[in-house]
Amino acid sequence: MHELSITQSIVDAVTDHADGARVIGIRLTVGRLSGVVPDAMRFCFELITEGTPLQGARLDIDEPDGRAHCASCGDDFTVPDFILLCPCGSADVRLLAGRELTITSLEVA
Ligand SMILES: [Zn+2]
Fold first, then answer.
1. How far does the centroid of ligand 1 lie from the alpha carbon of residue 29, in Å?
2. Would you state the pLDDT for residue 87?
3. Ligand 1 centroid – CA 78 distance (Å)
4. How far is residue 40's CA from residue 45's CA, in Å, rounded to a whole number?
5. How far does the centroid of ligand 1 lie from the alpha carbon of residue 63, in Å?
6. How many CB atoms lie within 10 A of CB 11?
7. Alphabetically, which GO biological process terms does the record hold (predicted)?
8. Which terminus of the chain has fewer Cβ atoms in its 10 Å neighbourhood, N or C?
9. Segment 92-107 mean pLDDT
């Protein structure tokens, strides 16, 4: 379960950044094509933060769809899953978004 190591990295980054302040909320952007399962992340977050200053912090996760641009027809289209094909049938596409995995905001007390 790679969510555990990813969540650990996020918790480490947040702890560093907060520099001793009490963190009450964290917002993440986890693209649908990132390969990370948000529910697993929430579960890991509770495990990892237990007994730390981050315990009880709210974890909000935005899950934007993937977006891609087709070089054949010129359209931008949504990529809801891992199948990177334009509706026109072309595979000559470039992924624009969907693999993000970032901390977008922190709320400290
Ligand atoms: Zn196309």
1. 27
2. 95
3. 11
4. 8
5. 24
6. 19
7. protein maturation
8. C
9. 95
Amino acid residing at 58: R
44 annotated among ligand-binding-site residues = no
CA-wise closest residue to 64 among 89, 36, 94, 44: 36
Q: Which amino acid is at 109?
A: A
Distances from the Cα of 100 to the Cαs of 19, 43, 47, 71, 74, in angstroms? 25, 20, 23, 22, 23
- Domains annotated for the chain, with CATH where assigned, are 3-65+97-108 (3.30.2320.50)
Ligand 1 centroid–CA 20 distance in Å is 50
**70 belongs to an annotated ligand binding site:** yes
69 is in an annotated binding site: no
